[in-house]
Amino acid sequence: MNFQQLRSVREAQRRGFNLTEVAQALHTSQPGVSRQIRELEQELGIAIFHRSGKRLTGLTEPGRQVLPIVEQLLVHAENLRRAGADFAQASQGLLRIAATHSQARYALPPVVRDFREQHPEVELKLQQGSPQQVARLLLDGEADVGIATEDLALHPELLALPCYRWTHSLILPQGHELSQGELTLERLAAYPVITYELGYTGRGHIDAAFSAAGLPLKVVLAAMDADVIKTYVELGLGVGIVASIAYDEERDRHLHAVDARHLFADNLTRLAVRRDSYLRDYAYAFIETFAPPLDRRAVDSARQ
Known about the structure:
The chain is α/β, with parallel strands linked by helices.
């Protein structure tokens, strides 16, 4: 039994049993992947996958029982490698961060700057995606730290730690009538709205507020990027609802922002790691830089 065999089995399940994609992911050949899987099955004395000719079609019942063990073996192997690196190369390494666009664009830049000043020999890899994609990158071991507002707390395998609360703002063209007088849901419901896609950046709280008030939400364009939303507001397509952090008075001087925290519930951004992953010293440092209350003691206490 070797780790290449275990990786071949894990990737076969992750890639929908497509051996061509498995071979590409593992930088090897398709016949090599097939051989690794067969050799492991022979050693264990079970069939891990159902087959139709040379194609894999699914997991057998023994395969479903074995796969979580394979995952744990590979996680522990990676943890062992990281533990060794902490002693051999304490200040060097790779930190993989997965974040939604809003976090990557607005919350992370000062954090990355400060972290790089303190840890210049650590390479950062920033991956952007939906909250669901951020969670999947963590679960698949392809990211060390994930940052998002939605989804992370839904997975028991992840430790999702609260970081900060934030609210929404209404984004308007300069001189728009909604910038005058009290902002209410009733007034807002009369206008076409440009905001986030479902599942992004507090969109659920926006929908919930209109639903609770029995008012229509006229979304004419949905996007996952606040900069896209602001662009179409500036073109006059509608009024925008974005995270307050996404508005900058100097940069967005052609637009006007109105605080909408009284209309929609607060949102909570979380930082997540796999509960069973080994965090290198600089990973703890990054977490504390992003959320100062989350020092090493707080993180380790939450993982217990």
